[in-house]
Write a structure and sequence with these properties.
Layout lengths: L7 E5 L6 H14 L7 E5 L5 H7 L6 E5 L16 H6 L4 E4 L2 H6 L4 H14 L2 E6 L3 H5 L3 H13 L4 H4 L3 E4 L13 H19 L1 H6 L2 E4 L7 H5 L6 E4 L6 H8 L2
Parallel strand pairs: 1-2, 1-8, 2-3, 3-4, 4-5, 5-6, 6-7, 7-8
Helix pairs in contact: 1-2, 1-12, 5-7, 7-9
The structure holds phosphoenolpyruvate.
Length: 253
């Protein structure tokens, strides 16, 4: 169904790797992973390591960078936050928005996610919007209500041609960092629901352009099966993206 053919493999480092470890990671990763035109490869290092990453990747324009979070305002009295414009200036091209840890540990709401998505587009960043249900919500039969509600709020008021340029990530909360991945069938089911809702909102053709990534305990040994599932256009990888060998292996899946 998806017109998108080039898989996106993204690594979310969370609160791991300062500048020195970032340099070490990339010096090894670059040895392991030759430039490729058949995958889009993205990294989300901590913001303090972005400059080190930009420097380390100077000769590798195929390896792209983003931030793990960005605020909806351009600047102001928001201690500890970074704006999407600043992130872009520092070398980011993507912004992870609405990751489950932001939603569940830091209380980020659907409405805030929508504001962050709009601000990211305005600053010239591609938002990678994360949605996903908790185990409790899944067991209560609320999967569709939760993930479609998160999607609707994230794209509220955004022009369809911009929505078509974003990346979506389905990350069931119960699969993140737990070692229990969704089955390829579970992922295909959720991705299909998301794709149909996108089609209702922005039309079939545009909906087919949006890469929908699966995230949640992706490892080298399950990446290929997940990537082969219908409507799974890429992977968002947490723990296994911290090791150059395992992430390079996943990018080859
Ligand atoms: C994530 O942080 O987005 C993630 C999917 O983590 P993990 O791969 O460790 O489950």
């Amino acid at each position: 169904m998806a017109a998108f053919v080039k898989p996106v493999i993204a690594g979310n480092w969370k609160m791991h790797k300062g500048p020195s470890q970032t340099r070490e990671f990339f010096s090894r990763f670059i040895e392991l992973r030759e430039a490729t035109a058949d995958r889009t490869i993205l990294f989300f290092p901590p913001a303090v390591s972005l400059a080190a990453a930009v420097e380390a990747l100077a000769g590798r324009p195929d390896l792209l960078l983003g931030v793990q979070n960005s605020h909806w305002e351009r600047e102001g009295a928001f201690t500890g936050e970074i704006s999407p414009g600043m992130a872009r200036d520092a070398g980011a091209r993507f912004a992870l928005i609405g990751h489950s840890e932001r939603r569940h540990l830091f209380g980020e709401t659907n409405e805030e996610v929508g504001r962050k998505v709009a601000a990211a587009f305005e600053a010239g960043l591609t938002p990678v919007v994360c949605v996903g249900e908790t185990l409790e919500e899944r067991e209560a039969g609320r999967l569709e209500e939760v993930i479609l509600g998160q999607l609707d709020a994230a794209i509220e008021g955004i022009a369809p041609e911009l929505v078509a340029q974003m990346i979506l990530a389905y990350e069931p909360v119960w699969a993140i960092g737990t070692g229990v991945n969704a089955t390829p069938e579970d992922a295909a089911d959720a991705h299909g629901r998301l794709r149909r809702r996108l089609a209702e909102r922005i039309g079939d053709d545009r909906a087919a352009e949006v890469p929908i990534l699966y995230g949640g305990s992706v490892k080298p040994n399950n990446a290929q099966a997940l990537l082969a599932a219908p409507d799974v256009d890429g992977l968002l990888v947490g723990g296994a993206s911290l090791d150059p060998e395992s992430f390079a292996a996943i990018t080859r899946s």
